[in-house]
Specification:
It is a single chain. The protein has about 475 residues and is of the alpha+beta class. The chain has 3 domains: about 5-165, 2-Layer Sandwich (Beta-Lactamase); about 225-310, Helix Hairpins, CATH 1.10.287.130; about 315-465, Histidine kinase-like ATPase, C-terminal domain (Heat Shock Protein 90, 2-Layer Sandwich), CATH 3.30.565.10. It is built from 10 helices and 12 strands. The strands form 3 sheets. A 5-stranded antiparallel β-sheet has the order 2-1-5-4-3, sandwiched between helices. α8 (about 320-340) runs parallel beside α9 (about 360-375). The longest helix has about 55 residues, at about 15-65. It starts with a helix and ends in a 7-residue tail after the last strand.
Length: about 475
């Protein structure tokens, strides 16, 4: 394995997480094992030490009540009755001269001088292990008696130490197992933890190769990484929507600007090739200016639609009197209605307030009223009505005009779409697209019902005061 690969592994996040998880798991497990062993050792040792302490108390009581001689006599008589004594007993006078020593068989190697020194120094417990393989293990306890003599009592604790040694070997085996499991568990946890990050990296690489349809898979865990994946996917959706909006805008611009540019070119060529009078040149310039204005209007409308559809349109949201906007729009279009012999009927409930951009709402009303008057017959009526419903402001624009064929209704909000009947009327085919996009940006909506020969009815909604705006 090359050094560069080892460096990558060592510095990878997965390796660091594996090491961290493994260390925490191993350290916590070993801590628990050490605590368990210490508790076990203390319990076992305390049991043996309790027996020695009881023996010391018994001998101390005899010495305190009957004297050292009686104690020695008691121990000798007890030893004669028990052919194999269980305890080591040694008594020294205050000058550390031996008065009595009784030892079970096999205790001959016990370092008596060292025991005497430990007793004189007041060491309460002393553990001694006989050198050599299979040697004994002994524990001693000493006490200074009332007469100033020293009493030393010892017991064989080899079985206890062998038991504890066996537990040590078991714990060592468990420790090795814990280390292996800790590393394995750490690797699994690190792999599961970093799986969303790897998915994110894979998705970014796919996007870098040009696949804008790639998305980060979510696992439904509702944790921070899953939330990050969801936010990243939302960002990708927004970017895709922006890119698609740009492409559609460019396609629409290319499609819709071809006609006015061709007309303007034709006017210029005609003016150059013909010997026009001053009035003729003036009319030609006016035609070119009209086509240029048509181009400017188309571009502005397309940009407004793209901004609204992609969520980047700036809206100055405020408390807007929709009833006042309806009256204002009706006054503006009243002259056009009278010119065409159409009756314009505004009707709004009082207290009709919405959270909206007043300028954009005027734009919506202007497009709907313009369409209604454009496709109405002389002598007909156009109604503009507003009311509150379910916390929203609703506005109806109804005409008694030509109506919209059923097959055209699903497509009337598409950019540049114009039905067969509408082609006889001058227009860009962008008005209803702009209306829907602006309402969507506000968090509103629009529905249409129509019947050929009887007219059309558009109803749009806006968030009322106290309702969240889009």
């Amino acid at each position: 394995m090359s050094s560069s690969l080892l460096d990558r592994i060592r510095h990878s996040t997965a390796s660091k997480l594996t090491a961290s998880y493994g260390f925490l798991y191993i350290a916590s497990s070993l801590f628990l094992f050490v605590i368990a062993y210490m508790l076990l050792a203390n319990v076992v040792r305390a049991q043996d030490q309790k027996l020695l302490t009881e023996k010391l108390n018994e001998y101390g009581y005899i010495e305190r009540t009957k004297g050292v001689g009686a104690l020695i006599e008691f121990i000798r008589r007890d030893n004669e009755e028990d052919t194999e004594p269980d305890y080591f007993v040694r008594i020294l006078d205050p000058a550390r001269r031996e008065l009595l020593t009784i030892a079970p068989p096999g205790w001959s190697a016990v370092p008596k001088e060292e025991l005497d020194t430990q007793a004189a120094e007041g060491v309460k417990w002393y553990l001694w292990e006989q050198p050599g393989l299979g040697g004994g293990v002994y524990e001693f306890s000493s006490r200074k008696l009332a007469s100033g003599a020293f009493l030393i009592v010892g017991g064989d604790v080899k079985q206890r130490e062998e038991l504890l040694a066996e537990f040590q070997r078991i714990f060592l085996g468990i420790t090795i197992t814990v280390v292996v499991i800790g590393v394995g568990v750490g690797a699994v946890l690190a792999n599961r933890t970093l799986a969303p990050i790897r998915d994110l990296i894979s998705t970014v690489n796919s996007i870098g190769r040009g696949s804008m349809a790639a998305r980060v898979p979510t696992r439904g865990t509702d944790d921070e990484l899953d939330e990050l994946a969801s936010l990243f996917n939302s960002m990708l959706e927004r970017i895709s929507l922006l890119i698609q909006g740009m492409r559609d805008a460019l396609d629409n611009v290319a499609h819709d600007l071809r006609t006015p540019l061709t007309r303007a070119k034709a006017v210029v060529e005609t003016a150059l090739q013909s010997n026009l009078s001053k009035q003729g040149l003036r009319e030609a310039l006016m035609d070119i200016a009209e086509e240029n204005e048509r181009i400017r209007t188309t571009l502005n409308t397309l940009m407004d639609i793209s901004e609204a559809e992609t969520g980047t349109m700036h809206l100055s949201l405020e408390r807007v009197d929709v009833a006042g906007l309806i009256e204002e729009s009706a006054e503006i279009y009243e002259y056009l209605a009278q010119e065409k012999g159409i009756i314009l009927v505004p009707d709004s409930s009082p207290g009709l307030y919405a959270v909206a951009d007043a300028g954009r709402v005027r734009q919506v009303l202007a497009n709907l009223l313009d369409n209604a008057l454009k496709y109405s017959k002389p002598g007909g009526q156009v109604f503009v009505t507003g009311w509150n419903e379910d916390g929203q402001v609703r506005v109806l624009v109804r005409d008694e005009g030509e109506g919209i064929p059923g097959e055209d209704i699903p497509r009337i909000f598409e950019r540049l779409y114009r039905g067969d009947k509408s082609r006889s009327h001058r227009g860009l085919g962008l008005g209803l697209s702009l209306v829907k996009a602006v309402l969507k940006a506000h968090g509103g909506d629009i529905q249409v019902t129509s019947e050929v020969g009887k007219g059309s009815e558009f109803v749009f909604s806006l968030p009322g005061v106290g309702q969240p705006a889009g």
